[in-house]
Amino acid sequence: MLDKSSCTLYELYNARFGSRARAGSGAIWNLRSNQLPPAGWTSADAAGLPILPGLLNYGQVKRAVQTKTPIRHAIRFTADRTRSAYIWPARHRAGNGGSMNLPPMGARFRLKLSFNVAAYCHNSSSCSREYRRATSRP
Question: Cα separation of 82 and 121, whole Å?
């Protein structure tokens, strides 16, 4: 839930509503601040980070498709399995083990330069042209 008047975000994990509302955990975020919670603190996403700022909404996706321009900010996603570790800026670990094949909480991902983005575009010529322009920057 977002209170736009105060830029306060309220996130709940495993929320259940019935005769009595309950949640497994929750976090309150001041979106006007970049201050991180203390190390070890959890949140609704278990990494100790707010979920909403990295989500895409329908309008962003529609605009990117209509204008044939890529979304250039970080995009949040979840992984089915994660390592029992975290890296900055995450503040909490909640994982499936110590395997180095699993990403830690807070991991960031980039596509390899060799990844064929054009294969996923409806109009591959304009997509690949935009992709080349975006990836040729220093």
Answer: 29
Q: Closest Cα partner for 27 from 18, 16, 15?
A: 15
H helix runs in the chain, sequence order: 58-67, 124-135
* CA Rg value for the chain: 18
Is pLDDT at 97 greater than 60 in this prediction?
yes
**Residue 129 CB: number of other CB atoms within 10 A?**
13
Phi and psi at 68, nearest 5°, equal 55, 35
In the numeric block, the tokens 């992984």 are attached to 79
pLDDT digits (tens, 9 = 90+) for 45-84: 888 889 888 888 888 888 888 888 888 777 888 888 999 9
Q: What pLDDT, in 10s, does the model give residues 8-26?
A: 999 999 999 999 999 988 8
Tell me phi and psi for residue 57, to 5 degrees. Answer: -115, 165
In angstroms, rounded to a whole number, what is the distance separating the alpha carbons of residues 66 and 60? 10
Residues 115, 120: Cα–Cα separation, whole Å: 10
Residue 34, token pair as written in the block: 């970049």
Residues 6+ positions from 89 with CB-CB distance below 8 Å: 36, 49, 106
